[in-house]
Amino acid sequence: MGNPLFRKKSISDLLDGKQPKEDALKKEMGAFDLTMLGIGAIIGTGIFVLTGTGALTAGPALILSFVIAGLACLFAALAYAEFASTVPVSGSVYTYTYTTLGEFMAFIIGWDLVLEYLLAVSAVSVGWSGYFQSLLGGFGLHIPAALTSAPGTIEGATTYFNLPAFLIVMIIAFLLSVGIKQSKRANNIMVIIKVAVVLLFIAVAVGYVKPGNWAPFMPFGFDGVFAAAALVFFAFIGFDAIASAAEETKNPKRDLPIGILSSLFICTLLYVIVSAIMTGVVPYQRFEGVAHPISLPLQAAGQDWAAGVIDLGAIIGMTTVMLVMLYGQTRVIFSMSRDGLMPPILSEIHKKYHTPYKATWFFGLVAALMGALIPLDELAKLVNIGTLSAFILISIAVIVLRVKQPDLKRAFRCPAVPLIPGLAILFCGFLILQLGASTWIRFGIWLAIGVVIYFLYSQKGSKLNK
Predict the structure, then answer these.
(1) Range with the poorest average pLDDT among 22-36, 113-127, 328-342, 451-465
(2) Domain spanning 36-406+417-461: which CATH class is it, in words?
(3) TM segments (predicted)?
(4) In whole angstroms, what is the distance from residue 363 CA to residue 248 CA?
(5) For residue 260, what is the enclosing H or E element?
(6) Which of these, 30, 64, 340, 446, could form a disulfide with 462 (CB 3.0-4.6 Å)?
(7) Burial level of 13, CB count in 10 A (0-12/13-18/19+)?
């Protein structure tokens, strides 16, 4: 018998559908739904919040930062598209790693994705709460201060619990637990509204651009551009969650590559246009301490009505991000549980709704409590390092599978292998190096906990072990 750390799932078994019928997820997603799922996950905190911080770091050259981060995602997206169309099974990069690099690496990347999605949902819920409270304030309504934020996050005020952040995640958990059809409808509607809001910003603000504000274009040199790229990478996180929907897609071999690549292209284009306009309307220095960077240029142009619409769009935008991230979280943990690497209760399917409802409610509650009780400013960087690590592994897996199974039927082929996956590894590795030492330490601690769980529980519980 070979080393259990490197035992692999059979691709042929996955493709033959050798999965108990009671464990199957319902197929409800088409190419349009997947594209909406990707845009729903991508356009959110990144464009509505992080663009201001990115402008202060890179100046008007923030455009280049978005292009660099977008290229890193594009190269990884091509690798995702090949795997998702070839092995259309729930679990995303976790499942792909299991078929190529072995069980231990699959568990580690699955554990990594748990961190990424959990923290993403929690961090975005805190941002959502801020915008929601601002919107209520416009109508003269105010939540008691003690229930507006996590303990110790507002200087000079006593706070115990972020109630809006908790409630929105619980509402999303309910939506996901009652069925993907209901969830995708809600997501599609919110994404259409969100994109319309971004297009409104472009249409209203473009007339107030002053080219002089773009000079100097690169005030902090390439160091500033690269640092901002590592930061705004957060704005692209989410397209990988589309791969989690493989088992619920009607025609995965065609629809998954379309959903992954089209959503990434649309969002990158919008990011570049928005960052160019916002730094053209007001000098980049004015974004210092601004919590609503997309609203600022409109306020400066005297278009307060449009700024209010943007704030509402931000709330809707963050809602879809949380929905897709929690969706991806539950599908990854569902796959790990179905393989025996996590407790079986996490892969139980609701008889009526055909969803992993227990996993949805459990992780929804954990994410809600984290957003309500823990300040996540520094921890949010862990989302980036977790995602970049996943992108590197999927790129390695594509190269390995091309070598080991060159004749495997691939509905979509990543072009120029190993060059494109190699570029993904290079770009993502470079962005990881831009993150601070504290982020690396925390990430290492999380992975160490995962290693302990694997050797104490998962290795023995694995269905391949039986």
Answers:
(1) 22-36
(2) mainly alpha
(3) 29-50, 62-84, 104-128, 135-154, 160-179, 191-209, 224-246, 258-285, 305-328, 359-376, 382-403, 415-433, 439-457
(4) 20
(5) helix 252-281
(6) 340
(7) exposed
Question: Angle at which helices 103-138 and 163-177 pack, to 10 degrees?
Answer: 120
Q: What are phi and psi of 152, to 5 degrees?
A: 75, 10
Cβ(119)–Cβ(379) below 8 Å: yes
* Token duo for residue 30: 């088409």
Task: Provide φ and ψ at 162, rounded to 5°.
Answer: -90, 90
Q: How far apart are CA 369 and CA 163, in angstroms?
A: 9
Q: pLDDT of 328-378, one tens digit each?
A: 888 889 989 999 999 999 989 888 878 888 999 999 999 999 888 876 555
| 355 three-state secondary structure | coil
Q: Which residues contact 254 (CB under 8 A, 6 or more apart)?
A: 31, 85, 411
- For residue 29, the SS3 value is strand
Helix/strand/coil percentages in the chain, nearest 5: 75, 0, 25
Sign of dihedral through CA atoms 269, 125, 332, 360? negative
| Residues 36/187, Cβ–Cβ less than 8 Å | yes
Residue with tokens 């601690």: 445
Q: What is the 3-state secondary structure (H, E, C) of 261-300?
A: HHHHHHHHHHHHHHHHHHHHHCCHHHHCCCCCCCHHHHHH
Say if CB 166 and CB 371 are below 8 A apart.
yes
Q: How is residue 417 annotated by DSSP?
A: T
Closest CA to 374 of 320, 440, 442: 442
Of 51, 430, 59, 57, the residue nearest 228 (C-alpha):
57
- pLDDT for 280-317, tens place per residue? 999 999 988 676 788 889 888 888 888 878 878 888 88
Q: Cα angle vertex 327, ends 326, 330, to 5°? A: 85
Give the C-alpha separation, 283 to 304, whole Å. 19
Q: How far apart are CA 27 and CA 149, in angstroms?
A: 39
Q: If we measure between CA atoms, which residue out of 377, 344, 373, 345 comes closest to residue 358? A: 345
Q: How far apart are the first and last CA of the chain?
A: 13
Going from N- to C-terminal start, the domains of the chain cover: 36-406+417-461
